[in-house]
Amino acid sequence: MILVNESSEFNAGMKLRNLLWWSAALLLSVLVAQAQGTNDNEKFENQLKQLQDKFDKQQRELRETFEKQQRELRESFDRVSREQQAEIEALKKQVAAMPTNAPPGAQPESGTADQIKELNEKVEAVVEAQTKTRPSEFNPSIGFVGETIFSYRSQGSGATGADRPGGFDAFQRSVELNAAAAVDPFAKGYVVANASADSVTGEATLGIEEAALQTTSLPWNLELKAGRFFGEFGRLSYIHDHELPFVNRPLALDQYIGGESRTDGAQVNWLLPIPHYISLTLGAGNGFGGDSPLNNPGTYRALSGLNYFGRLSSYFNLTPDWNVEAGGSALINPSTQDRGGAIPQPNGSTMTEKQRQVVGLDVKLNWVPLQNNQFRGFTWGTEVLFSDSRYLVDPDGSPDPAGEFMDRVGSLGLYSYMAYKWHRQWSAGFLFDYVQSAYNHSDETFAYSPFITWALSHWNQLRLQYTHTDPNAISGLHPDDALYLQWAWIIGSHAHGWQQR
Amino acid sequence: MKRNLFHLLSLTMAAALGLAAAPAGAAKVRVVTTLTDLADFTRNIGGEHVDVFSLATGVEDTHGVPMKPSFVPAMNRADLLILVGFGCEHAFLPALLEASKNPRIQYGRPGYVDCAKGVVPMEVPKSTDHSAGDVHPYGNPHYILDPVLARTAIQNIYDALVVVAPQYREDFTRNRDAYLAKLDAKIAQWKESLLPAKGEKFVSYHEHWTYFAKRFNLVYFGTIELKPGIDPTARYIESLVASMKAERVPVVVREPQFPEKVPALIARQTSAKLIKLPIMPGGVPNTETYIKMMDYIVHAMLDAAKERAPVSQ
To answer: What's the pLDDT tens digit per position in B146-157?
Structure first.
């Protein structure tokens, strides 16, 4: 039994021994750790002490440097002050020693003060002027054109078919007021009002030639014009009379377009987004041609009663000094609705227009020497038009519709002119005209017009032109010789428009 | 098939939109200048980041640059239009601007760069009545012939470039500073070169030289033109010759844009020296840049002053 007890006691002893061993080991570890920690602490404290010493040293050095710099700054300031004071004293002595022309009791600073006061007043006046608002502040650009034609024609108007009498005449052809301004950031507006003296009464009644809105910021290179304007057709149709390169509008334009290409409508211009200049214009309007009659829509105008027109044009630099512009144009009025009514013809018949079509090709060759273009230049412009209209023909011109028939008349017209400039003020040229009547292509007229222009300035111009007109016998008119003296002048604002280039 | 088509259409639209939306600054800044001096300044400041087209080639009258339709596509695509200002370009620019259909460069927009901003004009007329000729209503516009005032134009060009292409600001600044340093050195040299000609009188065909004369202490006696844009009458030429003789004016300047006949006649009758001076880079050979042009002008003036013959009585 003791064996069992001895075994238990042994086990317990073993356990105790083990416990003691582990405790000792643990204690020893702690002691060792403590010792190490103590070593580390000492090391750490040493390092700390070193850092502190270093910091204190740096602080001392910084403080010493700062104090040294302060001393130096103070000394420098004192020295400069002393020097400046000495200079001031020296200058004062110099001024005191200088002789003076000032009257007794005068203050030497008053002259300067007066000048400063005067300058201040001037500056204030300028500033005030800039802030003034004037009633005319919002006025558009306004210009005025006068154009008088003195003429002599060898034949009377009965023989020439002209609006003006033959023989000696003085005709106030244009009394033109133009105004233009920006409407808003998106569009500009312009108005051209013109009065032309009536051949019978002499009265000049003001009419609106153009009154249109033109956009300035549409995307995709588009520009819209709407209102009353000269539609883009050909090269000279949309040029005002007084701006033509010769006295009278070419016969073909007068006959097929009807003077200036005036229309009430809208047109869109597109500049093709390519490096080469190509411009396309398409438009539609009520009427086309300032001197031609309007359609007779009655109580209802269909789309076919409108005029549709367009032009495609381009430009080429042949050399730096030579260039050419070319274009093609078209005008169609599908239903002219008896435009102008029954027009009597030389052969006794009447013709009533039912449909109107005109196509044209224009080309202009320019010599614009870059260096001297104010003094020299040359232009050769040509336009060929083809009129193709349908008419209701009444052979005997009577109200009886019996015998009436539809006829299609194709007629050709062209003009070609050259103008040479050899001086800022002087240029001369020649115009050739040919037209077949829009009602009868056998009815032909030729005209030949040399001219010379004296531009006293930008705004004052005289032109002398001789014209020989030679209609054939079918027209019933007579050949005519005419001499014209045109005087055109401008006052007020004048803009070099794109169309006048 | 439909899906492929849809994809193709989408790609095409995306490409088109991307092209349309591509900022101008993504590629070079497209600049159109009216005159060649402005083109030179812009190239110097813009460097490789600008593509510059000048409407004038250098030989033209600054008021008579022709309105060529070939200019229109370039102006249509331009990011900046740089002009002299003070109405210098009134004869050709408004119509071209209208035809360009480019809203970015219209008056008042950031792309419309008036280099006269900040320049105090000389000879501002009291009246713009046409009896005074083709007056410049905002003052004499030929300030760029004064290289000190040209610095203002350079700064205006720089400011505009920085607005339209801020990503290249550093390059523009470096280029501007380098060019201005070069110009300032030349200004000092020109001033010194013309010291011997101080107070010398001269006439020219058109009133181009007002600012130049003031800067370099010369005396601008008058113009051969009766009034701006109006050729001289015989009576006016007679009185000009008489006053030139009385005041001993030794130099007649002819700008290349004007015919030689009348200036040569006046020079003969007054025994003055006739010299041809450009008003824009490229106006005469070997003046392709602004500095070369000013070098030419200064040397020609100096040589003319040195050669002055006794003025005939």
So the answer is: 999 999 999 999
Axis crossing angle, helix B261-270 with helix B234-247, rounded to the nearest 10? 40
Strand, coil or helix: A195: strand
- Its CATH class, for the domain covering B27-189, is alpha beta
Task: Please tell me what DSSP assigns to residue A108.
Answer: T
β-strand partners of A148: A172, A487
Measured between beta carbons, the chain A residues lying within 8 angstroms of B63 are 374
Give the C-alpha distances (Å, rounded to integers) separating A217 from A84, A185, B105, B112.
65, 8, 11, 14
Mean pLDDT of B237-266: 96
* 8 Å CB contact of A373 and B98: no
Domain ranges of chain B: 27-189, 197-306
> Residue A310, CB half-sphere, CA atoms under 13 Å: how many?
10
CA-to-CA distance for B273 and B308, rounded, in angstroms? 7
pLDDT in tens, A4-40: 444 555 565 566 666 666 555 556 555 555 555 456 6
Name the token pair of B88.
Answer: 């210098």
Name the pTM for this structure.
Answer: 0.79
Q: Enumerate the residues of chain B whose CB falls inside 8 A of the CB of residue A279.
A: 69
Q: Give B177→chain A minimum CA distance, Å.
A: 34
Q: Does B98 touch chain A (CB under 8 A)?
A: yes
Length of chain B: 313
Residue A359 CA to its chain's centroid (Å)? 29
What whole-number distance in Å separates Cα of residue A428 and Cα of residue A379?
11
Q: Look up residue A183 and give its amino acid.
A: V
Q: Is A357 exposed, middle or buried (0-12, 13-18, 19+ CB in 10 A)?
A: middle
- Cα distance between residue A125 and residue B301, in whole Å: 40
**Could you tell me which of B251, B257, B239 has the C-alpha nearest to residue B307?**
B251
Q: How far is CA A20 from CA A6, A35, A270, in A?
A: 21, 22, 108
**Separation in Å, CA of B96 to nearest CA in chain A:** 7
A271 lies within 8 A of chain B by CB: yes
User: What dihedral do alpha carbons A11, A14, A18, A24 form, nearest 10°?
Assistant: 140
| Interfacial A residues in 397-436 facing B (CB < 8 Å) | 424-425
**Is B197-306 the same fold as B27-189?**
yes
Of residues A317, A281, A367, A318, the one with CA closest to residue B70: A317
Secondary structure class of B155 (helix, strand, coil): helix
The 3-class SS string of A320-389 reads: CCEEEEEEEEEEEECCCCCEEEEEECCCCCEEEEEEEEEEEEEEEEEECCCCCCCCCEEEEEEEEEEEEE
**pLDDT tens per residue across span B204-248:** 999 999 999 999 999 999 999 999 989 999 999 999 999 999 999
Say yes or no to pLDDT of B87 above 60.
yes
Helix (H, G, I), strand (E, B) or coil at A423: coil
| Interaxial angle between packed helices B169-193 and B36-46, expressed in degrees from 0 to 180 and rounded to the nearest 10 | 130
Nearest alpha-carbon partner for A445 in A470, A425, A479: A470
Provide the H-helix boundaries in chain B.
2-21, 36-46, 71-77, 93-100, 147-164, 169-193, 210-215, 234-247, 261-270, 290-306
> Strands, E, within A239-321: which ranges?
262-271, 278-286, 307-317
What value does the mean pLDDT take over residues A247-270?
Answer: 96
The structure tokens listed for A276 are 């080469």
3-state secondary structure of B13: helix
Query: How many beta carbons lie within 10 A of that of residue B3, not counting itself?
Result: 7
Is residue B140 within 8 A of residue B62, CB to CB? The reply is no
Q: Are strands A262-271 and A278-286 parallel, antiparallel or unpaired?
A: antiparallel
CA–CA separation, A241 and A196 (whole Å): 11
Cα–Cα distances (Å) from B29 to B17, B49, B84, B112, in that order, read 20, 6, 19, 14
For B197-306, which CATH superfamily applies? Nitrogenase molybdenum iron protein domain (3.40.50.1980)
